[in-house]
Structure prediction request, 527 residues.
Amino acid sequence: MSANGDRPYTADEMMAVEAARRLDDTTVCFVGIGLPSLAANLARRTHAPGCTLVYESGTIGAKPVRLPLSIGDGELAETADAVVSVPEMFAYWLQGGRIDVGFLGAAQIDRHGNLNSTVIGDYDHPAVRLPGGGGAPEIALGVDDVFVMLRQSPRTFVERLDFTTSLGDNVRVVVTDLGILEPRPTPDSGVELTLVAVHPGSSVEEARAATGWDLRVADEIRETVPPTDEELAALRALETKGRSS
Amino acid sequence: MIVPLRDAVSELVGDGDVVALEGFTHLIPSAAGHELVRQGRRDLTLIRMTPDVVYDQLIGMGCARRLVFSWGGNPGVGSLHRLRDAVENDWPQALELEEHSHAGMAAAYAAGAANLPFGVLRGYRGGDLPSRTRVGVVVCPFTGEALAAVPAHRPDVGIIHAQQADRRGNVQLWGIAGVQKETVLASRRSIVTVEEIVDELEPRPNGVVLPSWTISAVSVAPGGAHPSYAAGYYDRDNEFYVAWDPISRDRDTFAAWMKRHVLDTADVAEYRASLAAEATAA
Prediction:
């Protein structure tokens, strides 16, 4: 967890809170490990107890007490409403259109929300071989709304991806450590990720400097609401239990 | 039917074979992977949705020529450094990649199990992956929709780990079942390592039963899924996944670790004892 000025919460916590607030009691969401799992579990423990967490290992309706370290931790299966095989998960549930929201991360994102989690450099002779797409290509197109959670820097928010792993068509929001980006129409009839809010203590200038393309900024910029005491308490309970496992 | 793992591997896996050791975070057949290393198998095509530590070990020890996969990382930790070294620097040898998405890999296994030539899915649309892998297009004869076709997985040998077998070699696994049933049914030959042999298999929630006649060999390997877990037997060794990062980052450290804990041990019991001795000394 990084320091966050004098504020009593970390940048990761701010990101998790902003993502969690976008889930409601009826959302069925496909969750990966790390910040998405933290966000979805926070939602379940605060305003959206009915939110359904689906992990790609086949656990549907998982209700972990501790934050899992892998998408297939035993606790996910033990607390799930149903456990299905991996072929069933991707065919019946994801392709079947049963999942509302999918969280994705990546090593690179472009202005259209396309993501790279495959390689840095050339595919055949990569500078860095990343883990690869995993579930991302079909999650990106198989859910209604894709939420991206990614720390903002010029190395990550790039003019041109080294490899396009998944398409940005369904990306509805990008939650970063500096603020919130959403797709908005451009004057030339395109759609482009646009800065719509900054977190307390962050600025538009900072967000522009951390973006590798000329970042569009909404006419009216909001400031996000810092984590409430209730949200922070729930987050820390999850994090503590995760660490001490 | 129920034979020592050493014999199962030497009889059923040859150099150059296409081998799938499957397990989706749970029940990963590490003991069988270690036996492939001990027996010095070469030029394998390794298939796995989520190659993790045991595939990093096989690749770093020079057992693999080709990897067919969809996500290759150390879950919750980061990169697989032996996989990266092979892809980025051809060390210890070049590794060909055939890369898919999870949905594509799952469809390819299901097609193999169903004795179909390809799996069909709504996927691989756009992006750069389709131009880098084996994927085709089929047109639905009823609606005209264009769908992705992935070639079926038909491994020479499918290897999985399960909780139990009975004395006749019928196998049951439960908990997160991943793609293991499809792996066995898609493969020409198969090896199942188990935690224990029991007199009778009791029905379990979400239990997957594989009758003995679908399996070539069953071998007893208690703890054989380490560092992953076996529901009902032991938990995931999360600390090991973290510890693997520095071990695997350096070629010499990796080689020394593999010699001590895999090459110089005879089986899974000695492997576990060797890890325990190191932990006690530390």
Summary: The CA atoms of residues 117 and 225 of chain B lie 31 Å apart.
